[in-house]
Design brief:
Blueprint (H helix, E strand, L loop, with lengths): L2 H15 L3 H5 L7 E2 L5 E5 L4 H6 L6 H12 L7 E5 L13 H18 L3 E5 L1 H8 L13 H4 L4 E5 L2 E8 L2 H6 L4 H15 L7 H6 L3
Parallel strand pairs: 2-3, 2-4, 4-6
Antiparallel strand pairs: 1-3, 5-6
Helix pairs in contact: 1-5
Amino acid sequence: MSNIELLDSLKQQIIDELNCPLKDAATNIVFGKGNPDADIVFIGEAPGEQEDLQGIPFVGRAGKELDKLLNQIGLTLDDVYICNILKYRPPKNRDPSVDEIKSHTPYLIDQLKIIKPKIIATLGNYSTKFVLGGFSPDNMKTVNGISVLHGTKHDVSLDGISITVVPIYHPAAMLYNPRLRESFTQDFLVMANILGLTPKNSPQNALSNFM
């Protein structure tokens, strides 16, 4: 089976078997989007209102900011895969609970095992703590927050696959705190360097495009 077929099967499995109150309150499952054979996967926290309505991750304001930065380092949705820790929206976009993370992340791990990315960009605290905690919700409290880890490089292993991890501020945080915009952009430049990509402009010009 192709990766797209395997991912479709996993999505249906979540719909059929996941027992979580978020599922009953949500409009749609928000599974993932992008290239199912991508070398780089972006992992966010949870769907927002627009994502829930459309069933697609990162289609709201934060998604538009993410698209800008992908374009800035020469990437498009054809080059990456994007998903979230949670597959259903928490009411009023509240933070995920420990139980919700525990019920959803086995499916996220299955997603990653299908795609087999070389690089994971974790967007925000929850995905960063989960991935750098050894893909275990029980270890999340032992991992530093995104304000400490953003823009750094880490190596993890999943099912024997070596993966490079780059924590990045969640684009939604930048919308609420414009002072994070420069850090968000610089984190993407770090990732571009790891990928061996050449940004379309110099770092200073790249920043000025988003001021």
